[in-house]
Design a protein that fits this description.
Radius of gyration: 19 Å
Shape: elongated
Number of domains: 1
Number of strands: 0
Helix content: 55-70%
Distance between the termini: 57 Å
Order of helices and strands: HHHHH
Strand content: under 5%
Length: 121
């Protein structure tokens, strides 16, 4: 049902998040934070990969790897969200790709934080 009458009991947060049918709000959130914002971050990157007018890039030598892994992650995400029934048979592969991307992002973030901390001192 698209509209719930006022006072109707709402399912709790986690039950809604893992429901078989995602809501429009969930799809919008996933699209914005899974594809649009990462692309905007790359376009506006002033320090880490491109460098600014006065600041040299911190990790220019990793630029190709970062773009490649990000593209694979966003592509896998789009396939997973666009073709959920067909992709569900490959759930473990998608989970591995997403986990590897999360680990890569965490490692890169800690390196950027370490470099930033070193520059401040």
């Amino acid at each position: 049902m698209l509209w719930e009458p006022p006072g109707a009991p709402q399912p709790r947060f986690w039950r809604r998040q893992f429901a078989l049918v995602p809501t429009t709000a969930q799809n919008t959130f996933d699209s914005i934070f899974g594809v649009i914002l990462p692309v905007l971050c790359f376009m506006g990157d002033p320090v880490v990969l491109k460098g600014g007018m006065l600041i040299p890039p911190m990790y220019e030598k990793f630029q190709l790897v970062v773009y490649l892994i990000s593209t694979v992650e966003m592509g896998a995400f789009l396939v997973w969200r666009t073709f959920p029934k067909q992709a569900s048979g490959f759930a473990s592969i998608f989970a591995g790709v997403f986990f590897a991307g999360a680990v890569f992002s965490a490692v890169l973030w800690t390196r950027v934080e370490d470099t930033a901390r070193t520059c401040r001192n």
